[in-house]
Each structure stands twice: as C-alpha cells, then as structure tokens.
Design a protein that fits this description.
- It is a single chain.
- By secondary structure, the protein is α+β, with helices and mostly antiparallel strands.
- It has helices at 9-20, 24-34, 42-60, 92-100, 109-114, 125-133, 136-150, 204-207, 223-246; strands at 64-70, 73-80, 85-91, 159-168, 171-180, 186-191.
- The chain has a 6-stranded mixed β-sheet.
Length: 247
C-alpha cells in the first residue's frame, strides 16, 4: 500500500530493518580484536554500518542511493524516483535539536532539505512571527545549500521524508516516517515501529541474499557468511580509522 509518504509496505519494512538492526556486536568485536580501548570510533562506525545496510537494501529494491557529505560528516539518503520522495535517516534526539535551532544563523543540512517541502498549513500569530523572521538571505542560503548537496538529483526530489529512530539505552525501539513542511511543522507521519529489526532476523543488507518481497520475509543468517561479511566490515572500519589517524 502506498501512502502520502511514498514507499510501499515492503520497501519501508526493509529500509527500517536495515536502519534499526543493532551495531554493538560488530563494534565490540572490532574493539577487542584491535585493542581500541577508548571506543572513540563507535559513533562513526555505528552510522557507517547502518548506512551500508541501508545502501544495499535500497539498491536491491530499485531505489536510488545518494551518498553525500557536509563538512566532515558523510551520510546516505534514499530516493524513490516514482514518488519523488527523498528519505533522510536520523535519531529523534538529533532531529529535535536541529528543529529547535531552525531559523537561526547556522543552517543545518536538515534545514536545507525541508526547504523543498510545502508551505505552512495555517497562519497563527506565532507562526507568522517565525515566518517573518526568516529573511530572504536565509531562504536563499537554504536553497543554495540543498542544490549543492543534491547536485544533478535536485530536480528529481519532490518532498523530503525523515525516517526517525526513537532510541532507548542506545537501541532503536521505534521508528516513524515524518513529513514536515518547509518550516518544520509536522504535516504527516506513519508509525513504522512494527518493522524494527528483531534479534532473530538476519543482517539482510550485509548479506545480499534474495528477499521474498511478497511475504516480507528476511532470510535467516548463515553463520559462515556472517563471519566473512563482518570480517570485511571490520577491516574497512580499521582502514578508515588508520586514515583518520594519519590524516
């Protein structure tokens, strides 16, 4: 079933599972194997793992993967050409901070992305004050920033949807797809918590195994394949850490 937020149920389920599957076990193995006592690599390594899974699932399901960077931060977003919906992945606590700082001098790339969405739904006095405070210069900077980030894909994006993970004890336990207008007012949301990865499901995005889309079934992991794939991931993370240390 298609919703206002673009994706059918099967694709939404696969993306959510790739986004929410735990990363701690892989990172713990890396820490032990290479004696990385401080664990400073964890946050970046965790997102690298998530983005890798999201990328693989998207490519397997006829979605366009955009790997972009802003400053030192690189991220993956997913474009559904059919609906023109661009999906941005974030944890709720991070998104809340960005929304709180909307309209201020510094323009976060989330601020730039929502500039592609529709205008306000209603005009209360409070909203009018906010809208009036957004200068032409601020709006022009938002537009230029999103054009710079998206590049040649800019004309393909009709709306930006945030896939938001709700975290407890460093584990994502709930997910919502949220559509905001250009002023970060919530227009629509869909609860995708039912798709959150459970321990019994495999690392589908890393495995590159066939997925039975009609049933939404994720194949169980094969131990030898899992070990081989996770070894590759460990080596990649270690190489990136060495490059950062030498850089």
């Amino acid at each position: 079933m298609l919703s206002r937020l673009g994706l059918n149920d099967t694709k939404a389920e696969l993306l959510v599972r790739s986004f929410t599957q735990e990363t701690a076990s892989v990172l713990n193995d890396i820490k032990k194997e290479y004696g990385l006592d401080t664990g400073n690599f964890r946050n970046g390594g965790s997102w690298d793992k998530r983005f890798g899974r999201i990328k693989d699932v998207a490519l397997q399901n006829d979605l366009v993967v955009l790997t972009r960077s802003r400053g030192i931060w690189a991220f993956v977003c997913v474009l559904d050409i059919a609906s023109g919906s661009l999906y941005i992945f974030s944890k709720e606590k991070n998104l809340d901070v960005v929304i709180k700082n909307f309209g201020k001098k510094s323009i976060h790339y989330f601020h730039a992305f929502v500039s592609l969405n529709s205008g306000p739904l209603e005009f209360s006095n409070q909203q009018m004050t906010l809208f009036d405070s957004l200068t032409d210069d601020y709006e022009n900077k938002r537009l230029l920033e999103v054009q710079k980030i998206l590049g040649e894909e800019y004309p393909l994006v009709k709306q930006v949807v945030f896939v938001v993970g709700q975290e407890i004890n460093k584990k994502i336990v709930g997910v919502e797809a949220r559509l905001f207008n250009r002023y970060f007012e919530l227009i629509d949301k869909v609860d995708w918590t039912a798709y959150v990865s459970k321990d019994e499901y495999s690392d589908v995005a890393v495995l590159n195994e066939d997925v039975e889309e009609s049933m939404g079934v994720i194949p169980k992991i094969k131990p030898l394949v899992k070990m081989r794939k996770e070894r590759i991931v460990k080596e990649k993370l270690l190489e990136e850490k060495k490059e950062e240390d030498n850089g």
